[in-house]
Amino acid sequence: IWNITLRDPAYWCLHIVRCENTSVHDVSILGDFNTPNNDGIDIEDSNNTFITRCHIDTGDDAICPKTYVAPLYNLTVTDCWIRTKSSAIKLGSASWFEFKSLVFDNITIFESHRGLGMQIRDGGNVNGITFSNMNISTRYYDPSWWGRAEPIYITTCPRDSSSKEGSISNLLFVNITIVSENGVFLSGSPNGLLTDIKFKNMNITLRRWSNYTSGLVDYRPGCQGLMNHSATAGIIMEHVNGFSVENVDLKWSDDNLNAWNVPLEFRPSTVNNVSFVGFSSGLLHEIV
């Protein structure tokens, strides 16, 4: 699939279902920024998929791997530009089977509601995912849309009482620059810990520019739903076993918000084997 422009999709725009060896390049998707379920590219139960040089500007999730009836292996996405009122890249929330060996490289995410996301809700496991060489800006939109301006959002929990807890392991985030209205959210579950997560060579700047209110944590769909949370943390950790941070700089903009006061938040849960090397946090001194 190449050299085409897709405009105003009413629902999921480009849907790749149970395919092998698919290539998508030089595709533009121009959707309605205010329409839910207006996804860009959904990759479902498919293996060996290559996506490059795509421009996606749409209301709902832009690049969205899902597993309904089979695993999803070997997805590579490079050199794309994305804007969305949902997640720019999201694994799930349909996640009954495994996601393995996914690479996302050289991607620009512009003023999206959520940057890099995982919503694992149906018992599938995630292993071996790399996010590299990215520029990300995320901001608040109306809370009726899933997302709370998280540049990185990694979660696993049961969708409902009949669902299982999947695991997420071996994630690498490297060479990433972030400007965001909210911090990173890492949340496993009691029987689905996040393990072996690594942040390397990252710059995170927190500042406000929209008029939407903060003070919420978003677990949707399922789990604990949308919850009040007063402080804005640089990184929230919950049910994590193995988190390594190397050469990461976290800065807050001086905008007189008392909420900018928690660089690292350890939620009341299991948080083990955490390492910080070359981590710095402080006020951003901007040139006026």
TrEMBL record:
InterPro entries: GH28_Enzymes, Glyco_hydro_28, Pectin_lyas_fold, Pectin_lyase_fold/virulence. It comes from the Eukaryota. One of its GO terms (biological process) is carbohydrate metabolic process. Pfam families: Glyco_hydro_28. GO terms for molecular function: polygalacturonase activity. Keywords: Glycosidase, Hydrolase. PANTHER family: PECTIN LYASE-LIKE SUPERFAMILY PROTEIN (PTHR31339:SF0), PECTIN LYASE-RELATED (PTHR31339). This is Polygalacturonase. It comes from Brassica cretica.
